[in-house]
Design goal:
By secondary structure, this protein is an alpha+beta fold. It contains four helices and three strands. Helices cover about 60% and strands about 15% of the residues. A hairpin with a 2-residue loop joins strand 2 (about 40-45) and strand 3.
C-alpha cells in the first residue's frame, strides 16, 4: 500500500517544463547532467526522456541554499 502512495507522488516532467522551471537551456541541462550536477533523466522509450519533478525541485532548493550559505 505504501508503494502505491509513493508512486502517486512521483511526477515526470518533459524537457520543456524543466527549461521553464529552471531557466536553463537545453544544452546546459545536458552538460550539467553529464557533469553530475543536475538530476539524470528517465528514459520513457526509444526517443523520449523525462525528469522526476521532485528531483528538479530539490536541485533548485539546493541552489537557493548555496546562495544563502546554508
Amino acid at each position: 500500500m505504501k508503494l502505491i502512495k509513493l508512486i502517486k507522488l512521483i511526477k515526470l516532467i518533459k524537457l520543456s517544463e524543466v527549461i521553464n522551471i529552471t531557466g536553463l537551456g537545453r544544452s546546459c541541462i545536458y552538460n550539467y547532467m553529464k557533469d553530475g550536477i543536475f538530476p539524470k533523466s528517465v528514459s520513457q522509450g526509444v526517443r523520449s526522456v523525462a525528469w522526476v519533478e521532485s528531483e528538479v525541485q530539490d536541485w533548485i532548493l539546493d541552489k537557493i541554499a548555496q546562495r544563502d550559505g546554508v
